[in-house]
Amino acid sequence: MKNIFTLCLLMLAGFLNAQTVQSPSKEITVTFKLTANGQPSYSVNYQNKPVIKESLLGIALKDTEALDTGFEITNTQNKSVAESWKPVLGEQSVIQNKYNETIFSLVQKTTGRKLNIVFKVYNEGVAFRYEFPKQDKLNYFIISDEKTEFNLTGNHKTFWIPGDYDSQEYVYNETKLSEIDNDKLNLNNGIAVKSIGGRYVVQSPLMMKSADGLYLNIFEAAVVNYPVMHLDVTTTNYKIKSHLVPNAIGDKAYLQTPAVSPWRTIMVSNDARAIVSSKMILNLNEPSKIDDTSWIKPMKYVGVWWEMHVGVSTWDLSGTQDASQKSVGKKPHGATTENTKRYIDFAAKHGFDGVLVEGWNVGWEDWFGNWKEEVFDFTTPYPDFNIQEISDYAKSKNVKMIMHHETSGSVANYERRLDRALNVMKKYGYPAVKTGYVGRIIPRGEFHDGQSMVNHFNYVPQRAAEYKIMVNSHESSRPTGVSRTWPNYIAAEAARGNEFNGWSNGNPPTHETILPFTRLLGGPMDYTPGVFEIKMSHYDPSKTEQVHTTLAKQLALYVTMYSPLQMACDLPENYEKYADAFQFIKDVAADWDESKYLEAEPGDYLTVARKAKGSENWFVGAITDENPRNTTILLDFLTPGKKYKAIIYQDGKTAHWEKNPINYEIKTIDVASKSKLKLTMAAGGGTAISIFPVK
Predict the structure, then answer these.
(1) The dihedral of CA 279, 281, 287, 293: what is its sign?
(2) How do residues 233-279 score in pLDDT, each as one tens digit?
(3) What positions does the domain Glycosyl-hydrolase 97 N-terminal occupy (predicted)?
């Protein structure tokens, strides 16, 4: 009887200790409390149903007592926020930021250390983070682990890629939670983490769907001065725990108080559109730190790039390496003055803003996989690339040049030379740079997703902002909304992009239907769509590689894959060959006033309508997976009473991503706000629509 009485007292103490925070809609409720031993915990309900069971919180510190137990609550602060802000570039011209917040101030009784846990609850999800206030003692923390848990309620369908400290360039797996097993996968580079004590390491964001139709997404926001969070998944009981990427000696993060962790986020809704359209990740970042943003502009560009991936030319001057860094018979160098002028002429003729050139600078003969300290100096062009002549020619055609800085993983070398490289860009009038981080990181032992590299990826756009230069990073850690703070961080790759279709087993038709629910939640992606010659046998009859979409779907990606930096990646001659389809790429905008997610199901389909910035022009993109799809969309987003002309680029009657990918049709019809459009998409297909007001 005494034991039962003690248990009842403990349960009553826990109940009295519990405090709740609700979303403005009151559909989401977070319950926070301290356990019997003083450990912080939380749970999440959606529409009165549990979605996150009681999950523990805490921080493990190196060589000192962990910040996980023995706490008491010393203060609680509540506030509600309803505001709006205008992004420099974005899917919306105005973003609403509405949430309820509670700060729980804790003190550890044995050490006197202070820790705050902050919850923000939005209509589409929950965010929380750790705050480390100035302490009476020990203001320098070495974090050895983060004990954040996300305990799920069931065996959800999950879209996942394996935990890899150096790469996100994987095809997504679609399995039950219980079927996650990254030990069976071919991992990219041997540095990826496999199972640990019965737990499997996967990357966030982790997109899920429950058996009763709830959509959940676990991610993070505002990763600044902290490592990337992967996730440990226990497949037998559906428990998930944070997994921080270590540095070269195994530590996770070094923090000087006052300091904060990134936000841990849980999105939940019974409508997939609420997840894919959410701006919660952006909202959780600090406002822009750039006062004058007039030089930050959207860009559509072409470039000397895809021709190297398909084997027409090479990056290196000797012409002996292909996109897989394998020796090949001698082929022409791509980055020549003459060839670059050809692209500049094409850009000027068709109204493109810029031209990217890769392979322009010395060092490409010996750049990959050698883990060399110094390969590129980012200032010395090959002798057949006259940077002054090209700059003058581009200026005469009103075309901007986009610089390329491949670091080959030698970040120490790049940081030493960064200001000289940016000065060269300013001298020759380059407003944007594409950075690359292929290979293992130097300093040796560091990872792409570790704290020091996160700091580097955030530092480059900060430094570039002083030169009024925009940054597009490739092979970086995946973005977490930091483009709000540094809007010149215009785009990033940080996922398996379209380039893989040129020389590997490619991206399956489902790939582009998953990325908007995962990678793109953190920021715009330079996916480089627009391949028109789908099969690589066009360049070499012995090749079997191909893009796993129809041509019409390549057009639709310009709308469904948001980025203010959009490449028409194919060769100029291929666009001239299919000039009628190319018209959509010429017309489509890259910056928007409004975005409407009309239909969404991760791994299956996505339909998006967007209104061009400062215009009455609308563009629609609809894509499907490997299954053909018929659907009807309403055009009620159009202005009532106005007449419009819709140009529809759709799959032809015999189109199929594998069997007949270049079969497409174009038709023009009159539409209005009351119109309905029937869309028919082939397997791996899509539809792109331009809608212009009739004058």
Answers:
(1) negative
(2) 999 999 999 999 999 999 999 999 999 999 999 999 999 999 999 99
(3) 21-287
Residue 145 to residue 59: CA distance in whole angstroms: 6
Report cis status (omega within 30 of 0) of the bond before 133.
Answer: no
Domain 18-283 listed as CATH 2.70.98.10: yes
How do beta strands 263-269 and 28-34 pair?
unpaired
Q: Lay out the sheet containing 489-492: strands in order across.
A: 489-492, 470-474, 432-436, 400-406, 354-357, 299-304, 565-567
pLDDT tens figures, 327-341: 566 899 999 999 999
- Count of beta carbons in the 10 Å neighbourhood of residue 481: 25
Domain boundaries of the chain, sorted by first residue? 18-283, 299-591
What number is the average pLDDT over the span 550-555?
A: 98
CA distance 429 to 357: 14
Pairing state between β 432-436 and 470-474: parallel
Looking at domain 299-591, its CATH superfamily turns out to be Aldolase class I (3.20.20.70)
* Cα distance between residue 457 and residue 449, in whole Å: 10
Catalytic annotation, residues: 499
Q: How far apart are CA 468 and CA 462, in angstroms?
A: 10
Measured CA to CA in angstroms, residue 405 lies from 300, 324, 335, 361 at distances of 19, 19, 14, 9
Q: Are 276 and 267 contacting, i.e. CB atoms less than 8 angstroms apart?
A: no
Fold match, 18-283 / 299-591: no
Question: How far is Cα 367 from Cα 375, in angstroms, rounded to an integer?
Answer: 6
Cis peptide before 258 (omega within 30 of 0): yes
Q: How far is CA 616 from CA 72, 124, 196, 637, in A?
A: 56, 29, 54, 11
Count Cα atoms within 13 angstroms, Cβ side, for 334: 26
- Which sign, positive or negative, has the C-alpha torsion 219, 224, 230, 231? negative
* CB 287, CB 95: distance < 8 Å: no
Dihedral sign, Cα of residue 346, residue 348, residue 350, residue 355: positive
Provide the mean pLDDT of the chain: 94
pTM, to two decimals: 0.95
Would you call 19 exposed, middle or buried from its count of C-beta atoms within 10 A (0-12, 13-18, 19+)?
middle
For the chain, first and last CA: distance in Å? 84
Sign (positive/negative) of CA torsion 448, 449, 453, 455? Answer: positive
* Cis geometry, peptide bond prior to residue 227 (ω within 30 degrees of 0): no
